[in-house]
Write a structure and sequence with these properties.
Ribosomal_N-acetyltransferase, Acyl_CoA_acyltransferase, Aminopeptidase, EC 2.-.-.-, 6 helices, GNAT family protein, nine-stranded mixed beta sheet, single chain, alpha+beta, 28% helix
């Protein structure tokens, strides 16, 4: 049978990757989902007096091109993705509704075996443990399916929600950095997690469509 010319899996295997946790479904970004994600960003991500992100992208929420910028950022990550450097932006859905984004990224993964993560949820979805669940999902993907040796993340000292998630999973301190945030000095706390330190959840991650993605992510086949 001839391949379907409308099937994106022919050239973009990430379109078939799906992660499933008890409440959530995570898929790499697609254009329809990105439009919904941009709407969620417009709904609000954090209080105006706070800034949890190293890059203060939410400060432009009142500008006419803000929603388009959310989509363009994800398109840029998609365009640059390859075995030497990748950033997969998973759209997080509950009951089919996009709630936020969970990113898993790496540089020279095939050599270093390390990943980085970052995430955000719309304010309406916060406070229900979803941030912990979606972090567990990408950590499980990294450790159990891609063979990662370490996972790194970072959060500003006053971002207690993100730091609690890291603590729940078993991350350990990995140094500090000073950054300028809205014109003032702010302390960024780095954290690192290994498979041995990871406090596994009681559930098992469901993964579909990973096999064809391995070469693109610099991961060898793990059977």
């Amino acid at each position: 049978m001839a391949p379907d010319p409308a099937d994106p899996l022919r050239h973009w295997p990430l379109a078939g990757l799906v992660l499933r946790s008890p409440r959530l479904e995570l898929r790499p970004d697609d254009d329809v989902g990105l439009a919904a994600l941009a709407d969620r960003a417009l709904d609000g991500v954090h209080p105006a007096e706070e800034m949890p992100f190293l890059e203060p992208w939410t400060d432009g929420a009142d500008s006419p091109g803000f929603a388009r910028g959310v989509m363009q950022y994800a398109w840029g990550c998609r365009a640059d993705l390859g075995p030497a450097r990748w950033s997969v932006n998973f759209l997080v859905r509950e009951g089919g509704r996009v709630l936020g984004m969970q990113t898993l990224a790496a540089t020279d993964f095939g050599v270093l075996g390390e990943v980085r993560s970052g995430s955000w949820l719309t304010r309406a979805a916060q406070g229900r443990g979803l941030g912990t669940e979606m972090r567990h999902a990408v950590v499980a993907l990294a450790f159990d399916h891609l063979g990662a040796r370490a996972a790194r993340t970072s959060a500003f000292a006053d971002n207690s929600a993100s730091r609690r998630v890291s603590d729940r999973l078993g991350y350990t301190p990995d140094g500090v950095e000073r950054h300028v945030r809205r014109g003032r000095s702010a302390l960024l706390l780095r954290s690192r997690l290994t498979p041995d330190d990871w406090r596994r959840p009681e559930w098992t991650l469901g993964v579909e469509g990973l096999g064809p993605c391995r070469a693109l992510l610099g991961s060898s086949d793990r059977g």
